[in-house]
Write a structure and sequence with these properties.
With 67 residues, the chain is mainly beta. Helix content is 0%, strand content 25%. A hairpin with a 4-residue loop joins strand 2 and strand 3. The termini are far apart.
Length: 67
C-alpha cells in the first residue's frame, strides 16, 4: 500500500532531520544525503534506522574534490 502523499511534508529522516523523497517504484522514503531508504509497509513508514537499507547511490566522500 502506498504512502499517503499528504504525510510526506511532515516526515523527516530520524537521523539527519532532513526531508525525505518518496520513491513510488520501491515504496520507500529515500534520504539521498545519507544514501538510505526506509520501507513503507501497509502504508506505514518504518522510520527505525535499523530497518533502513543502503541505497545504491552513495553520498560523496568529504574532502574529495572533482578535478
Amino acid at each position: 500500500q502506498p504512502l499517503e502523499p499528504s504525510l510526506l511534508r511532515f516526515l523527516v529522516c530520524p537521523l539527519s532531520k532532513r526531508p525525505l523523497r518518496y520513491e513510488e517504484a520501491t515504496n520507500e522514503l529515500i534520504n539521498e544525503e545519507l544514501g538510505i531508504a526506509y520501507p513503507i509497509v501497509d502504508g506505514i513508514p518504518n522510520m527505525i534506522p535499523e530497518a533502513a537499507r543502503t541505497t545504491q547511490k552513495k553520498p560523496p566522500a568529504e574532502g574529495l574534490k572533482q578535478p
